[in-house]
Each structure stands twice: as C-alpha cells, then as structure tokens.
Amino acid sequence: MLADVLTSAASWLGERSLLTYVVPEELMAELRVGQLVAVPYGERLVEGIVWTTSQDEWVELEQGEELRPIHTILDTEPALLGHQMALAQWVADYYVTPLAYVAQMMLPPGLMQRSRAVLRLAANDEQAIDAAMQGGSLQLRALLGLLLTEGTIDVERLKELLGPKRAKAILKEARENELFMQDSQLDAPKAKARVKRVVRLVSRGDALQEWCKRTEEIAQRNALPVPVPVIPDHIMQPKSTGRKGRKAVENPWAIPEAVSATATLTLSRTDKESLRAQHQLAAVDLLLHNTDPNAHWSPNALCKASGMTKAQFDQLLREHILEVVEAELRRDPLMGRTVLPSQPLSLTPDQQHALNCIVGDEYDLRPILLHGVTGSGKTEVYLQSLAAIIAQGKQGIILVPEIALTTQAVLRVAGRFPDRVAIIHSELSTGERYDEWRRIRSGEVDVVIGSRSALFAPLPNLGIIILDEEHEPAYKQSERRPTYHAREVALMLGNILNIPVVLGSATPLLIHSISPSRSTIAWLNYLAVSMLPCLRLR
C-alpha cells in the first residue's frame, strides 16, 4: 500500500508537492486520508498530511530513488476533510500557490510540529567510551561528556554553543565515530488542550446521603462557644501626665487592655471533629451545587472556599467521597460576555420569499445575492436559514467582516443557537483557536461565525455558507500568502458540496449587475421594509 503525503518541506517542489511513501503493515488498518503523519525527509522527520492512498505496491522511480516508509500516525482523526482537500487543490491551482501553504492555512496555528535533529550515543559501551575519552579530540571529549550527562543534545543548540564552523567539524568527527548517532525528533505542537487537576464527587445517591447524615451528626455534637473577653472589675487608668499638684483627667476614649486582648480557647477533640465535619460538608455542598459544566474546583480552591485543611481533604479522598482527576478546560472566546437568548421573529412577505429561495422549494442551485438596505432584516433571514439547515442535520458558516466581530452580530448568532456556535478569527489566542477547531471537527458545533478564515472550518456536514456584507474588501487576503478572496473561495466550496451560498449586502458589487453574472447568481432585491433616512442639505 502506498500513500501520497503533502509536507511543508515539499512546498516549493512544484509538480512534486506530494511525496510517495510506503505504508507499513502495522499502520494499514489505521491510516486514512487527511491524517497527520510523520515521514522521513532527508535526514530528518517532517510532518505531513496523507493526501491519497492506493493499493499499488510499485511506482516508477528515477535512478537512485527508493520509497521510504511512513514513520508514525500523529493523530487518528483526519486534520482535513475530503471537501477541504478538494478546495485546497482548487485554491492552489487558481491562485498559483504551493499546495502546502494552502493546507497549512486550513489548520489552526500551532498544530504543526517542528522537526529537529538530535545527537545521542549509539550504544552504552564503556570500553568504547573510555577509548574515545582518551584518544578523541578535546571537542569530541566535551561532546561525549555532555551526552553522558544529558542523554541527547539538539544539533541547533550545539551550533549555538560552538559556532557553525566548529559544530560542523565536531559533527563530522562524531559521524565517523560509531559511538555517536544522529536522530530526528518532532517537537510537541504549541497548540494543545488545556488540562487542569480538578475535584469531583465520586460518591452518589444513597451512599452520599448516608455519609452526609453521619457527618452532620458529628458537626452538631458540640456547638463551639464564641470567645468573649473577660473584663476585670477594676480597670487601671493610664498614668497622669498632668503637672504636679493637679488632678489627672480620665481619658474617655481609652480602650481597656482586656478588651483589646485576644481570648484563646483550647479546642477539645470533639470540637476539632465538629469543625472537620463542617468543613467537609461545605466542600461537598459546593460540588453538589456546581451546575455550570465549564466551572471546575481545583483542590486548592476547594480547600480555601470550604476551610478544609489538606489532611481533611485527603480523608475525603481515602473514603472515596471525592477524587482528583485531570479535566480539559475549554478556552471560550465568549467567556465573560453576556449572551441573551433570542427567538425567531415573524417574517415579512419579502423575507419569507427570500427564505424560500435559500432553503425552500424555490432554491435553484445558484448562489443567492440578498440585496437589502441596512435594517431591512437580512440577519433574521440568515438566522432562520441556518435554523432550517440545522433541522436537516447539517451545519452552517456565516462570514462577517473582521470589524463586525466586535459588534452584536456574534452575540445575536450565539443567542439564537446557544452552546452550538464556534468563533474563528485572527484575534483569538492559539489555545482558543485550537479548542474551537477541535469542537468543530468533533461535531459539537452547528454554526461557525468569523472572518474569512472561518471558511476553512472542518464542519463534517456543511449545509450553507453565508457572506454578510459581501462587498467588503476585508474578504480579500493580500498581505500574506496564500492570497485569496473569500467570496470566490466560498462560491467554489458551495459548488463542491452543492449547497446554498448567500451573499448579503446593502450595496452589492457592480460586477453582480453585469449580464453574465446575473445569469449565474440569483438576485433577491426584495428586502425594502426599511428605508434609508432622508438627508437634506442646507
């Protein structure tokens, strides 16, 4: 079995952007198109995407070439879906861009792993090591001592320590010596799930109720007295500071020493047991009343809030009332923002006609241009179109200009589809984009809203694409490669999947009014329920 793999190392190879590798027998059952794999490239390992597979066992090679096996599968879930790979191929051809650039653009930043060369000892042969320490050069002996201490050393670090020329010489000497071996490793990706140690209840039902009843009895055995300072009958007045022969005046604001003193009580064993029970009950009560699935109690936070000591917390662990587990904490872009739920509004006849043309019986497979002035209700048509698509078991993408992401547009979409919306744009942190990307890929999301990069979200069952304010120049990426226009890419993606593409605007581009364009795009110019304000110049 053979596989064509797209690697970043081959991005400038033109016609040979895909490299062919042999699929080892132990990987045949798991390997799928779109997966991230590690493959050998020269003397190092690089990351790549499985682009195609074939059952062939032979391929025509040039003289001196040989097929090498795939090293390992990095992620069993595909990083790119089939329609994404078809779209990437079109973007690469249409915009004359290396395919690897386009594929990497579709992945969240920080997902790809960097390859690095490391030097290690080939064998732990004491005699060979002693011989090298005695007969080798000073630099070779220093390298050997470093490897004996650290196990491995990064070749790039060695170049930083010794300089490029000296490092090159010592590496050459090391390769000639069979005691050393150069290997290649992939660094862990920068983007990874956020994991934290959290506390959760183990005991449930009757067992927990029985524990609570028993612990409450202990807590109520002895009510602790409130410390009250004892004021003596005779309070000594401060010494007089008046002149001799004159009677000192008492200070009415003087605070008796006994009042300012702290009363100390010695707790009995019963008192300590009562306090322990109260603290443990408070901790369990906090966990029982935690209704937010995204809120977690760490061990330290729970002890601080309930007053428990570490010993009291450990007792609950031993009794299997609580347990400490590692839980993934989602980095939510909407954290701290108030999302108010909203209900569908009644549509006007023009809005209803537009909805029918998008998701109803009047849809004729052409992209739809929804032309309506600001405030005419285009957003409500978008939302109800998305709802209709979701009812069919599909998902949708809605693109908005970057500046619109700071407005109420995102909150309005999130309020209509609570907990089923993902946000993708360039201002998110690496962790936020990674978490959103994984939610989308796993099917936890019905709607993706964002800037032009949201178009490449890995929705497994995409059913509609909406571009709001399609005339905005922000949909064109020209500042970095690959350059593309989100409107053209959206139209092609809709063509690949045979799904509706809605272009909404109050001021459509002039090109849409040209005759050939009018035949390929359904122009809906019905949303006139809102009129622009009348302006009068004086």
Automatic annotation (TrEMBL):
Q: Which Pfam families match?
A: DEAD (PF00270), PriA_3primeBD (PF17764)
CDD domains from the xrefs?
DEXHc_priA
Q: Which GO terms describe its biological process?
A: DNA recombination; DNA replication initiation; DNA replication, synthesis of primer; double-strand break repair
Presence of the UniProt keyword Heme in the record: no
**One Gene Ontology cellular component annotation held by this UniProt entry:** primosome complex
Q: Which GO terms describe its molecular function?
A: 3'-5' DNA helicase activity; ATP binding; DNA binding; hydrolase activity; metal ion binding
Protein name according to UniProt: DNA 3'-5' helicase
Question: What organism does the record attribute this protein to?
Answer: Dictyobacter kobayashii
